Recover the amino acids of this structure.
């Protein structure tokens, strides 16, 4: 089973705000940016067990500033790009899974509050969010 | 010493040392530039419009914009870089050190094998440790000194001492772009031992090609990861504190003398 966990900040996300400012400066039509650490765990444990394991891992999750979501889909949401460092496999949360893959999820929203269309997301990825020399983007 | 150096070199060039939010090495960079006779000063990000009046630019080390998104990613699109990119295209000298080097790669100025602001390489997470390193290193000129204007006054096979202080200093790129870096002579410095021997043991961070520095096609932009300005005076070496002039130049000063020579 592949389980997808998204960890977001409950406190203001300065990095997401910097990304929003830079994207606007680059002419990308975006009104809001959300960022998440996406962890994907492969293994026999249940989704709830994986989530509980992540919540116990203090290097991944701080309940004072993070929120955790166990996602149903193993793919990015609408308006979202997952950026991962090439060949980035991390051995974490060993009590739940043997290995995990990490992505940074960027979800972009337009002025009407809905996720941006694929063309806008592609523009943001190419101009700022992904350095293809060292990263890959999944949209 | 600075006045004497200025007279010797007849340097009138003005050097801007760029300060982004999070830059932290501007003071020592300005100081060594002045010590070798350059008219250098820090230029704050809020003073970007003054940049066209300078003759050369140094992007010093630090953590510009907290390395948000990636090291150098936000800074590469900062308004200050609009001026630096235009200046580089006109042939002015641009030097990036450590975080400054990361910014130059994100801006596509080096190795310059792609379009501007479309990076084809990066200085990324050290390998195999994945951790920050603070280590005294030596870097050796990889090609002929004249390949890069900033190194033109250095002797063949020059070895410069410096301090590596980075968590993300490993050159990474696709095989295609690494080949272009090699065949295009973009590899300006490689890590070496103090005697100039080059081998894997001298590379502290797993950098591809043993790379410590890259230059662009024209040779007017140079990005180096280690800090020669942190090995520029005897006081950078605790073992020299006793009985030696602690303000005397150390090995890294040679790099900046070459930079000054390029502007004279």
């Amino acid at each position: 089973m592949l389980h997808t966990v998204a960890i977001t900040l409950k406190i203001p996300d300065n990095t997401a705000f910097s990304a929003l400012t830079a994207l606007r400066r680059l002419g990308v039509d975006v009104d809001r940016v959300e960022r998440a650490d996406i962890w994907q765990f492969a293994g026999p444990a249940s989704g709830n067990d994986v989530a509980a394991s992540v919540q116990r891992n203090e290097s991944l999750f701080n309940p004072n500033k993070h929120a955790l979501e166990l996602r149903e889909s193993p793919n990015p949401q609408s308006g979202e790009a997952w950026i991962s460092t090439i060949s980035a496999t991390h051995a974490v949360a060993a009590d739940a899974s043997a290995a995990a893959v990490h992505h940074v999820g960027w979800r972009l929203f337009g002025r009407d509050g809905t996720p941006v269309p694929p063309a806008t997301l592609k523009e943001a990825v190419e101009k700022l969010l992904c350095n293809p020399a060292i990263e890959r983007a999944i949209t | 010493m600075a006045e004497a150096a200025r007279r010797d070199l007849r340097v009138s060039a003005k050097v801007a040392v760029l300060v982004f939010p999070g830059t932290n090495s501007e003071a020592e960079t300005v100081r060594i530039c002045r010590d070798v006779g350059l008219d250098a000063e820090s230029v704050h990000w809020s003073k970007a419009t003054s940049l066209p009046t300078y003759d050369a630019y140094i992007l010093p080390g630090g953590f510009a914009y907290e390395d948000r998104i990636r090291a150098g990613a936000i800074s590469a699109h900062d308004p200050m870089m609009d001026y630096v990119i235009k200046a580089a295209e006109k042939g002015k000298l641009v030097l990036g050190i450590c975080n400054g080097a990361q910014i130059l790669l994100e801006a596509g100025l080096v190795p310059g094998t792609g379009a501007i602001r479309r990076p084809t390489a990066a200085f990324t997470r050290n390998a195999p440790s994945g951790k920050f390193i603070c280590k005294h290193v030596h870097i050796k000129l990889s090609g002929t000194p004249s390949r890069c204007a900033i190194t033109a006054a250095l002797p063949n096979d020059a070895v410069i001492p410096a301090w590596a202080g980075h968590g993300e200093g490993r050159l990474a790129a696709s095989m295609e772009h690494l080949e272009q870096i090699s065949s295009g002579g973009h590899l300006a410095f490689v890590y070496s031992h103090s005697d100039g021997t080059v081998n894997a043991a001298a590379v502290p961070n797993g950098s591809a090609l043993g790379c410590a520095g890259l230059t662009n096609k024209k040779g007017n932009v140079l990005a180096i990861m280690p800090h020669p300005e942190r090995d520029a005076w005897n006081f950078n070496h605790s073992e020299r504190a006793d009985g030696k002039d602690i303000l005397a130049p150390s090995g890294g000063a040679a790099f900046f003398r070459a930079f000054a020579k390029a502007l004279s």
In short: Chain A has one domain: 2-138. The beta strands of chain A are 2-9, 32-42, 66-71, 80-85, 89-90, 99-109, 135-138. Chain A touches chain B at residues 14-15, 18-19, 22, 25-26, 85-86, 126-129, 131-135 (CB under 8 Å). DSSP finds three helices and seven strands in chain A.
